[in-house]
Amino acid sequence: MANIAHTYYPQTGRLVILGAGESGVGAAILGKDRGFDVFVSDMGDISNGYKEILQKETIAFESGQHTDQQILNADLVVKSPGIPEKAPLIQQLRAQGTPVISEIEFAAQYTNAKLICITGSNGKSTTTMLTYYMLQKGGINVGLAGNIGKSFAFQVARESFDVYVLEISSFMLDDMYHFRADVAVILNITPDHLDRYDYKLENYINSKFRIIRNQTEQDYFIYCADDQETMNALPRFESKAMLLPLTQEREIVQGAYLDKDNTIKIYIPNREIFTMNIEELSLQGKHNVYNNMASGLIAKVQELRNQTMKESMGSYVNIPHRLEHVAYIGGVNYINDSKATNVNSVWYALESFSTDIVLILGGVDKGNDYDMLRELVKQKVKAIICIGKDTSRIHDAFEEEADVIVNSASMEDAVEIASHLAKKGDTVLLSPACASFDWFKNYEERGDKFKEAVMTL
């Protein structure tokens, strides 16, 4: 059975794709293979790599503009998660009754694979990659998609997997209606991207909980019982799926918990219990215990052997740009956490280190509330170096907590300043709490520039 049980959308006719990034080009290829008349439109410049793919596939496209008459005649529109609902073109399409959906929603119609869907404000990339690694080790024919790697639609079109592990953002969930997750995971919910949700946390929470829509009694819902926002919202959303909580605060009868001996225990009815001491995990830190618990529960659902799970959790190496060790220079540890684009991610990063920290912070502020960082900054951060165009909110937030707050002119400048402020035994941590697009194309470029600057010290 496909993961959209019935066909809710046109299966022929004109398919318009808005946005020609990884997800858009993948959706265009799947649409072409399914016999649609496909047109791709991107308001920005389409990269040469994606242009070449579209030309090779003989798919019509336009770059640097949206031509209304080429778009408003669509039978179905697949839009990039980056395009907000308030965009006038989207409003026009909605007003005339044209379905506007996400690439994930579109592609799910055409696969019978099991879909493991992971969302959360923090930790979703690590949990997704760890789960993928574990399932591969367990011999499962598994694909990786969503916010990571090759487009889901492209893989559905041209590859064949029995299971997909999908990292799903709130922006993707906003355009998903009939999609069904076999396993849905909400790791945590903290204020993020509130500029897209009318600055209302409740709207963002509603978006995250769309991941459990359409689940049946055969499905599983994994969530963190220690996360206040998740637990507050849970009664509002009815789930038919088997509930599998995870917690580090108490013993529970089914799900995952941490016992008093610092041993993770994972139990799903009718499956063998799994145990592993947290000291044996390759990813350390409290937040990574949660990530391992979530991945472990997924592995149990997929009936992996305990030995495979243990080996995987003990050998996994973290993804780039997430608490990534770059170098150890003059007794100073340099850490790239460029993927930390919100305040909560920075909290996790600061919590992971016991050394004094020189923190590189800043970028495009999305309405950040820095209050939750104040105590940790006071305890652990000896200096803050600001990057990005507007640094005033960082100065205002931490002027009483940090002894030193300085601005920098570039990433090279920031790293240079940090190297002078850091003493032997300290950690220089790039963990920006902000989006990157004022100085960089994306968080990957920001992290790469940091790594380059460190290596020239």
TrEMBL record:
It catalyses: UDP-N-acetyl-alpha-D-muramoyl-L-alanine + D-glutamate + ATP = UDP-N-acetyl-alpha-D-muramoyl-L-alanyl-D-glutamate + ADP + phosphate + H(+). GO terms for cellular component: cytoplasm. GO terms for molecular function: ATP binding; UDP-N-acetylmuramoylalanine-D-glutamate ligase activity. ATP binds at G120, S121, N122, G123, K124, S125, T126. Residues 321-434 form the Mur ligase C-terminal domain. It is found in: Cytoplasm. GO terms for biological process: cell division; cell wall organization; peptidoglycan biosynthetic process; regulation of cell shape. It is an enzyme of class 6 (ligase). The keyword Zinc-finger does not apply. The keyword Transferase does not apply. Pathway: Cell wall biogenesis; peptidoglycan biosynthesis. Its EC number is 6.3.2.9. Keywords: ATP-binding, Cell cycle, Cell division, Cell shape, Cell wall biogenesis/degradation, Cytoplasm, Ligase, Nucleotide-binding, Peptidoglycan synthesis. Residues 118-297 form the Mur ligase central domain. PANTHER family: UDP-N-ACETYLMURAMOYLALANINE--D-GLUTAMATE LIGASE. Cell wall formation. Catalyzes the addition of glutamate to the nucleotide precursor UDP-N-acetylmuramoyl-L-alanine (UMA). Belongs to the MurCDEF family. This is UDP-N-acetylmuramoylalanine--D-glutamate ligase. It comes from Sphingobacterium olei. The gene is murD.
